[in-house]
Design brief:
Radius of gyration of chain A: 32 Å
Structural class of chain A: alpha+beta
Order of helices and strands of chain A: HHEHHEEEEHEHEHEEEEEHEHEHHHHH
Largest sheet of chain B: 6 strands, mixed
Shape of chain B: globular
CATH superfamily of chain B: P-loop containing nucleotide triphosphate hydrolases
Oligomer: heterodimer
Number of domains of chain A: 2
Shape of chain A: elongated
Number of helices of chain A: 14
Helix content of chain A: 40-55%
Largest sheet of chain A: 12 strands, mixed
Largest interface: A-B, 21 and 25 residues
CATH architecture of chain B: 3-Layer(aba) Sandwich
Structural class of chain B: alpha/beta
Number of strands of chain B: 10
Order of helices and strands of chain B: EEEHEEHEHHHEHEHEE
Strand content of chain B: 25-35%
CATH class of chain B: Alpha Beta
Distance between the termini of chain B: 28 Å
CATH topology of chain B: Rossmann fold
Chain lengths: 400, 234
């Protein structure tokens, strides 16, 4: 019955659908876009392993320049070794640094086209960034102590320099300096259209000697044994580092601690405000669409007064009529909603194409979308349906 | 035989712009099963109001109405809808079919409201249409049917729930004489099969098809007599 009426008024039904579609479209597309960004940023942020925090001189996310940070002492190798010595709770303390100064890496006649990231660290560094050795070996304590000229290379570097050869044991040149490849890491894939596999990694000591002058500041990653011991570990490390850096009691830390949670929070507060904005726009759009539905349903009721009268005469109860019109409005809303969801997800995922991150289907928002359509259908369809249900059969049948 | 319908001092008053209109002013009628009754009267006499009350489309302002022992005047809207659905078959002057639905669909609707299962519904609707001679018009919409055919669809619809009475309001009013005769024949057949028929009309000739004629004037019963010269439409 419902469908007869909708089919008979195709244009009107389509226009009504469109209102709902646009409302749902706006919320779904923004939510999909945010979700794609979120998932890619989160995977980017999750370079940190679990139960891990990072100690640096400057904050990880910094707005503008700040004298406070500039005047801080650098974190040098000595401090790093001392911290490693003093802190008992962490299962891992790794110092590292990186540079963009190396333009090309060569092997025989082959060279990398894109400048790789070159970084130094120790045997724990790879683990704290969730990267694992695919072939060969990790760095050892000895490599660090003896400043050996060895390196571990990412999958992209392998692709370019060793398409047909086994890279292990081969000697490559960075800015003309020889390094022996001792390990290859597993492929990480892309984040934000940037490969995560284009790097050369070596002992921090070697790195500092070869690629850094006097001025450098290490980032130290610390991993606690478990999440239960996390805050205890954090306290111990802060205490130890304050002692090493001779920070007088009562004064602020002269270094920054960054945790995964903090990075997520900073990002979350940013997307949160976009979400609220998009959500409120959509709510307005949906209310407007709902008014459209109500208007159309009122027209539909008026147009069918005679039909309602006939139906009542032959035995339709108020509930039958109410149900008929509510089904019609909910059906219209849901079709509109589903169209909106489909186009919204498509539009949102265009962003994932542009940003080269994997496509996302926000199932939760799609479900909320369709549910809210039903609510709109019921909410704005109730009054017209109620009016229809309460029509007097005799008068309605006389209506022309 | 016990009464199928008994109306006792039925009054129906309207307030039209502050003026009291007594459409019905104390009607007493009893109807037994398998009677064929004509309700006659000029327009404005109150016969339509009476039909609406007998058909449970309207409720009296005062008086009592018993339908197969049930007190109709005390019922709420949904109970009235249920009585209309199960006990009364309507045939209207203007057919009152659903314009966008096929004949079959139109006949099926009362069965939907009585919660008959779909397969059974279609079967009953089909055989009802066949019984009025429209077996080959099942999928035609009202605008694809002639007036006489439309009225036969309406009769088929009136019959699907095997009602206790068939209430026909000027059933031939919008038809040519030939179709009118056909319709009257169908009604007569239904009467001979044991149905109770109430025919509302202002035409004397049509009224003579019944075996009892009630004449209404100014909201009161003017005459209620048996019709010796019943026209047996054949």
């Amino acid at each position: 019955m419902t469908f007869d009426a909708i089919r008979a008024n195709k244009l009107r039904s389509t226009l009504t659908l469109l209102g709902i579609s646009v409302g749902i479209f706006s919320v779904i597309s923004v939510m999909t876009a945010i979700k794609t960004l979120e998932s890619s940023i989160e995977s980017g942020l999750n370079v940190f392993g679990t139960n891990t925090f990072l100690i640096t001189k400057d904050p990880a996310i910094q707005f503008g320049r700040n004298e406070k940070y500039r005047n801080r002492k650098n974190i040098n190798l000595d401090q790093y070794f001392q911290l490693k010595e003093r802190a008992k709770l962490p299962i891992l303390v790794s110092g590292g640094d990186e540079t963009q100064n190396v333009r090309v890496v060569t092997y025989k006649d082959k060279k990398t086209k894109q400048a790789p990231r070159v970084s130094g660290g120790d045997y724990g560094t790879l683990r704290t960034v969730n990267t694992y050795i695919a072939d060969g070996r990790n760095l050892t304590e000895e490599d660090v102590h003896l400043s050996r000229s060895v390196c571990i290379i990412g999958a992209d570097v392998v692709d370019v320099l060793f398409p047909f050869e086994d890279p292990l044991g081969k000697v490559i040149q960075l800015n003309g300096i020889n390094f022996t490849v001792v390990g290859v890491t597993e492929r990480q894939g892309q984040s934000f259209g940037q490969s995560q596999d284009n790097y050369v990694f070596m002992p921090v000591t070697t790195f500092l000697q070869r690629f850094r002058g006097k001025s450098y500041s290490l980032g130290i990653t610390v991993e606690s044994e478990s999440s239960e011991l996390y805050s205890e570990t954090l306290d111990e490390v802060i205490g130890a580092l304050r002692a090493i850096r001779k920070v007088p009691p009562g004064e602020e830390n002269d270094f920054e601690i960054t945790t995964n949670d903090e990075l997520m929070e900073t990002f979350g507060s940013f997307t949160g405000s976009i979400k609220i904005f998009a959500f409120s726009i959509s709510v307005i759009a949906l209310i407007v669409a709902g008014i459209g539905i109500m208007n159309i349903m009122l027209v539909s009721v008026t147009e069918r007064i005679k039909e309602i009268g006939i139906r009542k005469a032959i035995g339709a109860t108020r509930r039958h009529i109410l149900f008929q019109f509510l089904t019609e409005s909910v059906f219209l809303c849901q079709i509109g909603g589903i169209i909106g969801v489909i186009f919204g997800i498509a539009a949102g995922n265009v962003i994932s194409l542009v940003a080269k991150v994997p496509a996302v289907i926000p199932i939760d928002w799609a479900i909320y979308g369709v549910i809210s359509c039903s609510i709109i259908g019921i909410g704005f369809g109730s009054y017209p349906a109620w009016r229809a249900a309460n029509l007097d059969p005799v008068e309605s049948m006389r209506f022309e | 035989m016990s009464n199928l319908i008994s109306l006792n001092q039925i009054k129906r008053h309207y307030d039209v712009g502050g003026e009291l209109v007594k459409a019905l002013d104390g009607i007493d009628v009893s109807i037994k099963p398998n009677e064929y009754i004509s309700i006659m009267g000029p327009s404005g006499s109150g016969k339509s109001t009476l039909m609406n009350i007998i058909g449970c489309l309207d409720t009296p302002t005062d008086g009592t109405y018993q339908f197969e022992g049930e007190l109709v005047h005390e019922m709420d809207d949904d109970q009235l809808a249920s009585i209309r659905n199960r006990k009364i078959g309507f045939v209207f002057q203007t057919f009152n079919l659903l314009p966008r639905s096929t004949a079959l669909r139109n006949v099926e609707v009362p069965l939907i409201y009585s919660n008959t299962p779909k397969a059974e519904r279609l079967e009953i609707a089909r055989s009802s249409l066949i019984s009025v001679g429209l077996g080959d018009r099942l999928d035609h919409k009202p605008n694809e049917l002639s007036g006489g055919q439309r009225q036969r669809v309406a009769i088929a619809r009136a019959l699907v729930n095997t009602p206790s009475i068939i209430l026909a309001d000027e059933p031939t009013g919008n038809l040519d004489s030939k179709s009118g005769i056909e319709i009257m024949k169908i009604l007569y057949d239904l009467y001979t099969k044991g149905n109770t028929i109430i025919l509302v009309t202002h035409e004397k000739e049509i009224a003579k098809h019944a075996n009892r004629i009630i004449t209404i004037f100014d909201g009161k019963i003017k005459e209620d007599r048996a019709n010796e010269n019943m026209i047996k439409a054949l």
